[in-house]
Design brief:
30% of the residues lie in helices and 34% in strands. By secondary structure, it is an alpha+beta fold. Strand 2 (62-70) and strand 3 form a beta hairpin.
Protein backbone atom coordinates (compact mmCIF):
# COMPACT_ATOMS: atom_id res chain seq x y z
CA UNK A 1 0.00 0.00 0.00
CA UNK A 2 1.31 3.44 -0.93
CA UNK A 3 1.45 5.90 1.94
CA UNK A 4 -0.30 9.23 1.39
CA UNK A 5 1.84 12.35 1.58
CA UNK A 6 1.02 15.90 2.59
CA UNK A 7 1.53 18.62 0.03
CA UNK A 8 0.18 21.96 -1.03
CA UNK A 9 -0.19 23.43 -4.48
CA UNK A 10 0.55 26.99 -5.45
CA UNK A 11 1.25 29.02 -8.55
CA UNK A 12 4.96 29.00 -9.40
CA UNK A 13 7.15 31.99 -10.09
CA UNK A 14 10.65 32.74 -11.31
CA UNK A 15 12.13 31.89 -7.90
CA UNK A 16 10.92 28.30 -8.36
CA UNK A 17 12.47 27.46 -11.74
CA UNK A 18 15.46 25.48 -10.42
CA UNK A 19 13.23 23.33 -8.21
CA UNK A 20 10.83 22.77 -11.13
CA UNK A 21 13.79 21.60 -13.22
CA UNK A 22 14.94 19.23 -10.45
CA UNK A 23 11.46 17.68 -10.19
CA UNK A 24 11.21 17.42 -13.99
CA UNK A 25 14.56 15.61 -14.24
CA UNK A 26 13.65 13.27 -11.39
CA UNK A 27 10.39 12.39 -13.17
CA UNK A 28 12.12 11.72 -16.49
CA UNK A 29 14.86 9.62 -14.90
CA UNK A 30 12.72 7.66 -12.43
CA UNK A 31 9.40 7.22 -14.27
CA UNK A 32 10.35 7.83 -17.90
CA UNK A 33 13.19 5.33 -17.64
CA UNK A 34 10.61 2.57 -17.09
CA UNK A 35 9.20 3.19 -20.60
CA UNK A 36 12.07 4.42 -22.77
CA UNK A 37 15.65 3.30 -23.50
CA UNK A 38 18.53 5.05 -21.71
CA UNK A 39 19.53 7.15 -24.74
CA UNK A 40 16.01 8.59 -25.06
CA UNK A 41 15.87 9.35 -21.31
CA UNK A 42 19.29 11.02 -21.54
CA UNK A 43 18.29 13.21 -24.50
CA UNK A 44 14.87 13.98 -22.97
CA UNK A 45 16.44 15.39 -19.84
CA UNK A 46 19.60 16.89 -21.35
CA UNK A 47 18.25 20.41 -21.78
CA UNK A 48 16.05 20.56 -18.69
CA UNK A 49 17.22 23.51 -16.57
CA UNK A 50 15.72 26.58 -14.96
CA UNK A 51 16.09 28.71 -18.10
CA UNK A 52 13.57 26.47 -19.86
CA UNK A 53 10.84 27.58 -17.42
CA UNK A 54 11.94 31.22 -17.35
CA UNK A 55 11.45 31.32 -21.14
CA UNK A 56 8.12 29.47 -20.93
CA UNK A 57 6.83 31.87 -18.27
CA UNK A 58 7.88 34.82 -20.43
CA UNK A 59 5.76 33.35 -23.26
CA UNK A 60 2.73 33.17 -20.94
CA UNK A 61 2.85 29.57 -19.73
CA UNK A 62 1.42 29.26 -16.20
CA UNK A 63 3.05 26.81 -13.77
CA UNK A 64 1.80 25.22 -10.56
CA UNK A 65 3.96 23.36 -8.07
CA UNK A 66 3.23 20.81 -5.36
CA UNK A 67 5.35 21.36 -2.28
CA UNK A 68 5.89 18.68 0.32
CA UNK A 69 8.61 17.88 2.82
CA UNK A 70 11.57 15.57 2.63
CA UNK A 71 13.93 15.36 5.56
CA UNK A 72 12.15 18.28 7.21
CA UNK A 73 12.84 20.57 4.25
CA UNK A 74 10.31 21.83 1.68
CA UNK A 75 10.70 20.22 -1.74
CA UNK A 76 8.91 20.58 -5.06
CA UNK A 77 7.28 17.18 -5.61
CA UNK A 78 6.07 18.01 -9.10
CA UNK A 79 4.60 20.63 -11.38
CA UNK A 80 1.93 21.24 -13.96
CA UNK A 81 1.50 23.91 -16.56
CA UNK A 82 -1.00 25.40 -18.99
CA UNK A 83 -0.21 27.20 -22.23
CA UNK A 84 -1.90 28.06 -25.49
CA UNK A 85 -0.04 26.78 -28.55
CA UNK A 86 -1.42 27.56 -32.01
CA UNK A 87 -4.94 28.07 -30.57
CA UNK A 88 -4.79 24.77 -28.62
CA UNK A 89 -4.87 24.67 -24.85
CA UNK A 90 -2.10 22.36 -23.68
CA UNK A 91 -1.10 21.04 -20.26
CA UNK A 92 1.79 19.08 -18.83
CA UNK A 93 2.21 17.27 -15.50
CA UNK A 94 5.42 15.82 -14.05
CA UNK A 95 5.97 14.38 -10.57
CA UNK A 96 9.01 12.97 -8.82
CA UNK A 97 9.12 9.20 -8.75
CA UNK A 98 8.59 9.14 -4.98
CA UNK A 99 5.40 11.22 -5.37
CA UNK A 100 3.85 9.06 -8.13
CA UNK A 101 0.47 7.45 -7.44
CA UNK A 102 -0.09 9.54 -4.30
CA UNK A 103 -2.55 12.10 -5.66
CA UNK A 104 0.07 14.76 -6.36
CA UNK A 105 -0.18 14.53 -10.16
CA UNK A 106 -3.98 14.58 -10.22
CA UNK A 107 -4.07 17.62 -7.92
CA UNK A 108 -1.54 19.38 -10.13
CA UNK A 109 -3.55 18.48 -13.22
CA UNK A 110 -6.71 19.97 -11.71
CA UNK A 111 -4.84 23.28 -11.23
CA UNK A 112 -3.68 23.33 -14.85
CA UNK A 113 -7.15 22.31 -16.05
CA UNK A 114 -8.73 25.16 -14.03
CA UNK A 115 -6.29 27.60 -15.66
CA UNK A 116 -7.27 26.29 -19.09
CA UNK A 117 -10.98 26.65 -18.32
CA UNK A 118 -10.42 30.17 -17.00
CA UNK A 119 -8.66 30.97 -20.30
CA UNK A 120 -11.71 29.79 -22.27
CA UNK A 121 -10.66 26.24 -23.21
CA UNK A 122 -13.29 23.83 -24.50
CA UNK A 123 -10.72 21.04 -24.79
CA UNK A 124 -7.16 20.30 -23.68
CA UNK A 125 -4.54 18.60 -25.83
CA UNK A 126 -1.39 16.76 -24.82
CA UNK A 127 1.39 14.76 -26.42
CA UNK A 128 1.72 12.21 -23.63
CA UNK A 129 4.85 10.22 -22.98
CA UNK A 130 4.24 6.48 -22.79
CA UNK A 131 4.80 6.81 -19.03
CA UNK A 132 1.87 9.23 -18.69
CA UNK A 133 -0.84 7.66 -20.86
CA UNK A 134 -2.66 5.82 -18.05
CA UNK A 135 -2.44 8.91 -15.81
CA UNK A 136 -4.09 11.09 -18.45
CA UNK A 137 -6.75 8.46 -19.20
CA UNK A 138 -7.58 8.39 -15.47
CA UNK A 139 -8.01 12.17 -15.67
CA UNK A 140 -10.52 12.09 -18.52
CA UNK A 141 -8.36 12.15 -21.66
CA UNK A 142 -8.91 10.01 -24.72
CA UNK A 143 -6.32 8.84 -27.22
CA UNK A 144 -6.64 10.52 -30.61
CA UNK A 145 -3.48 9.16 -32.23
CA UNK A 146 0.09 7.99 -31.83
CA UNK A 147 3.28 9.48 -33.11
CA UNK A 148 6.76 10.66 -32.33
CA UNK A 149 8.09 13.67 -30.49
CA UNK A 150 11.40 14.88 -31.85
CA UNK A 151 13.96 15.56 -29.10
CA UNK A 152 16.57 18.34 -29.42
CA UNK A 153 19.14 15.71 -30.47
CA UNK A 154 16.99 14.64 -33.41
CA UNK A 155 16.17 11.33 -31.71
CA UNK A 156 12.50 10.29 -31.83
CA UNK A 157 10.47 9.54 -28.74
CA UNK A 158 7.17 7.67 -29.02
CA UNK A 159 4.17 9.59 -27.71
CA UNK A 160 0.40 9.40 -27.61
CA UNK A 161 -1.73 12.34 -28.74
CA UNK A 162 -4.61 12.82 -26.33
CA UNK A 163 -7.52 15.20 -25.82
CA UNK A 164 -9.94 15.99 -23.06
CA UNK A 165 -13.19 17.69 -23.95
CA UNK A 166 -14.32 20.11 -21.30
CA UNK A 167 -17.89 20.81 -20.28
CA UNK A 168 -19.30 23.80 -22.08
CA UNK A 169 -19.45 26.87 -19.87
CA UNK A 170 -21.83 28.67 -22.19
CA UNK A 171 -25.56 28.86 -21.43
CA UNK A 172 -27.96 27.33 -23.87
CA UNK A 173 -31.06 29.24 -24.75
CA UNK A 174 -34.38 27.44 -25.15
CA UNK A 175 -36.14 28.25 -28.41
Amino acid sequence: MVRAIDFEIRCAGLADVQEIAAAHLDSIRSIGALYYPAEVVSDWGARVNGDLYVEAMARGEVFFIAIGERGGQPEVLGFSSHRIDEAQHRVAVYVRGEAARRGVGSALFRSAEAAAIAAGATSIHIDASLAAVEFYKANGFEEVGRGKHRLWSGRSMACVFMRKKLASTGRSVAV
